[in-house]
Amino acid sequence: MNTDTPLLTMRGVRIDGFADERWTPIVKGVDLTLHRGQVLGLIGESGAGKSTLGLAAMGFARPGCRISGGEILFDGIDLMRASEAEKQALRGVRIAYVAQSAAAAFNPAHTLLEQTIEAPVRHGLMSAAEAADYARTLYAAMDLPDPDTIGDRYPHQVSGGQLQRAMTAMAMCAKPDLIIFDEPTTALDVTTQVNVLAAMRKAIREFGTAAIYITHDLAVVAQMADRIKVLRYGEEVEEAPTETMLAAPKHPYTKSLWAVRAIRKPGETGPDKVLELNGITAAYGTIPVLRDISLAVPRGKTVALVGESGSGKSTTARVITGLLPPVAGEVRFEGAPLPPALRGRSRDQLRRIQMIYQSADTAMNPRHTVHEIIGRPVQFYLGKSGAEVTARVSQLLDMIELDDSFMDRLPGELSGGQKQRICIARALAAEPDVIICDEVTSALDQIVQEGILKLLMKLQRTLGLSYIFITHDIDTVRAIADEVVVMFQGEVVEQGLKEQIFAPPHPAYTELLLSSVPKMETGWLEDRIAAQARTASGG
Amino acid sequence: MTDTPETYSAAAEIGAPRTRRGPGTRAWLALKKAPVSAWFGLVVICAYALVAIFAPLLAPHGEAQVFAQPYAPWTANHPLGTDQIGRDILSRLIYGARNTIGIALTTTLLAFLIGGGLALVAAIARGWTDQILSRLVDVLMAIPSLIFALMLLSIFGASVLSLIVIIAVLDSTRVFRITRAVAMNVVVMEYVEAARLRGEGTWWIMRREILPNIMPPLVAEFGLRFCFVFLTIAALSFLGLGIQPPTADWGSMVRENASLIQFAQYDLKAGITPLLPAAAIALLTVGVNFVVDWFLMQTSGLKDEH
């Protein structure tokens, strides 16, 4: 094997997408070189063309896209000229793909093993028995529990993190030269993500596979990649070895990707508690989800609820809003108990607690204009009509840093960040005391997140709002929280001022949560694995 | 790269959208791209509507005006001849459009009001309300609707009002099913939850949050249901329990003149006469279906890729 010739060379690759009856460029001439055993990180915001470029490395364009120019050479094979049959012979065998959602990529009707060995067996590389043996080796390499038998399970019988690892094993089963990872850990909790990352890295190192790692998370790519390429608007911004990129990013755009991590504010508390939860226990049917939750929100401050999915953060929000009346305990608003169910609450009580959702796409009616969306609470709660509503909507748009030209737009005509701003304006329109923010920034790009968080902080200063901020992202908590409540399996593990929570000593779960957040250092993952091994052998 | 500002501005993320076209312009643009079948359907529907509206002006004779000669052949005075008691067939065909289409349209609207309204209530309330309504619909759907309609009509008498109400109630079960199914997909959206949290009532949620989002499938269903109602009325009239004489309607016209078909061996035109109202029914049904197909294609995104 000649290590000097690159495994994959892309020169001036251009990809067009078909929209509004015409072809518009998505990727505008990107060069890429990848040697055997190397890992290249592709980062950028959504819409930067990362995934499109990743797929093009397999000579594949999504339906509605076409590769319109450039050169793609995979191990001497010209993928631009190769026939569909030739490309098919490569895919899954010499080039494999790991998608973001493993749950959607696995066929629920077949066991993991059947699907893992499908590619090598179908292409006649191994017999079924050999492939199954090799799959078990891979399962073991991916640190899956019971590697000998886990393959007999169906996709729904394993957890999301395990499924993602099984998918990596599936990709590696045909011993490919190149694997394309497309945001493989984005949908996972931080504590799960660490294990998946570690397993993936161990496996690609062990088998000397080259990889393209696509993500929007700089800290993750820092653990995985040898080199990092930053993309924006389908063009390359800069490329450098990982250490160089982290230590001294050249382009201002690359620097802006660090943005959220730069916001800091000291945690403060106040004596005036606007909202209190006392001994809340809640259940869906007979399944208990919250056990004895007590917390208090000081006026004009931010309380962050932190924990992984399933820890009861969102359920706590449902109890506060009255969507899920608790089995025991009470919610007090300004000292007076709130009726447990939504129906029992007065319009004024509803007005004073507002909610902002994670996904602004589904939180706004796609058939309502911005004016209707923001204007409705103004009408409904404050009894205004006609020109008064329009004047107020205009004022609110100004508060969220948008102008009047947005009034007639439908949600489909807004960007993700703009949508979330409209949702904030809708909450503000009710002139509330408390706003519950449920993962409001987790679906957004870093730079947009920064904008939203700064806006929320500004509104808090000017309007004296109190926030309950539900998130799993520790960086966001560091950025804007005053107090932190750590939740695990429906219980409060720890609560207090931000500085106290983040300063050791921690209870075991907080420790795990904090140490699982990838740091923007290249050696972090190794240190973390080593530390885990120490605790495992020591304790 | 050079033309993109490095300072962040929320308003600049997506600039001004393309100028919003008015609903008229958009409809015209869609029409221009419509296939021939859709155009054909639209022309047919418009023609029927015009005939129905201007029936008294278009018909050469009165609806129930009786002439001396029954079963008259096609002549200048009676372009399509006369029926078994000497009424002008062309005039009755024209008035028949008005009666049959009018009743079918009213019935379909009523069916959508009942079925759609209850379905939205069921989808929003869920729980017991949904269970009771859905099971009731299941029971009604278990009985063959034509036989059930015949039975009810013989109990309540075959007046136009009972015809409309009975068919509307029986057909509303199907409307209920589809509306509930599509509404269920919308009810779980966060914007409906947001409206609930705001304290909005069921009526607002139904009308403003859910209805605009389920319109396309409902409009398509409206076209289809209209065809079925139309056929049911024609079938009932053919069986003698639908629209009662002397009101002209296509279903009973087929029955009344059916015997003429035996004369086809002597006079081909006489043989064709009973088929004319049947053809009128078929043409309208086909036309509506073409338009519905096109509309579904437009809204469901089932477009041909290049």
UniProtKB/TrEMBL annotation, chain A:
CDD domains: ABC_NikE_OppD_transporters (cd03257)
One protein family per Pfam: ABC_tran
Main location group: membrane
Alphabetically ordered keywords of this record: ATP-binding, Cell inner membrane, Cell membrane, Membrane, Nucleotide-binding, Translocase, Transport
PROSITE patterns: ABC_TRANSPORTER_1 (PS00211), ABC_TRANSPORTER_2 (PS50893)
Keyword NADP found: no
Residue ranges of domain ABC transporter in the record: 10-258, 275-514
Gene Ontology CC entries for this record: plasma membrane
Record's subcellular location: Cell inner membrane
Record flagged with keyword Transport: yes
GO terms, biological process: peptide transport
GO MF, any single term: ATP hydrolysis activity
InterPro entries in alphabetical order: AAA+_ATPase, ABC_Ni/Peptide_Import, ABC_transporter-like_ATP-bd, ABC_transporter-like_CS, Oligopep_ABC_C, P-loop_NTPase
Family per similarity comment: Belongs to the ABC transporter superfamily.
PANTHER family named among the record's database cross-references: ATPASE AAA-TYPE CORE DOMAIN-CONTAINING PROTEIN, OLIGOPEPTIDE TRANSPORT ATP-BINDING PROTEIN APPD
Name of this protein: Peptide/nickel transport system ATP-binding protein
Originating species: Rhodovulum marinum
TrEMBL record, chain B:
Residue ranges of domain ABC transmembrane type-1 in the record: 97-296
InterPro entries found in the cross-reference section: BP-dependent_transpt_permease (IPR050366), MetI-like (IPR000515), MetI-like_sf (IPR035906), OppC_N (IPR025966)
Key words, A-Z: Cell membrane, Membrane, Transmembrane, Transmembrane helix, Transport
GO cellular component terms, semicolon-separated: plasma membrane
Membrane-topology annotation of the record: Multi-pass membrane protein
GO BP terms in the entry: transmembrane transport
The keyword Transport belongs to this UniProt entry's keyword annotation: yes
Annotated transmembrane regions: 38-59, 101-125, 145-170, 222-243, 275-296
Subcellular localization(s) per the UniProt record: Cell membrane
PANTHER family listed in its UniProt record: OLIGOPEPTIDE TRANSPORT SYSTEM PERMEASE PROTEIN APPC, PEPTIDE ABC TRANSPORTER PERMEASE PROTEIN
Family, similarity comment: Belongs to the binding-protein-dependent transport system permease family.
Protein name: Peptide/nickel transport system permease protein
Source organism: Rhodovulum marinum
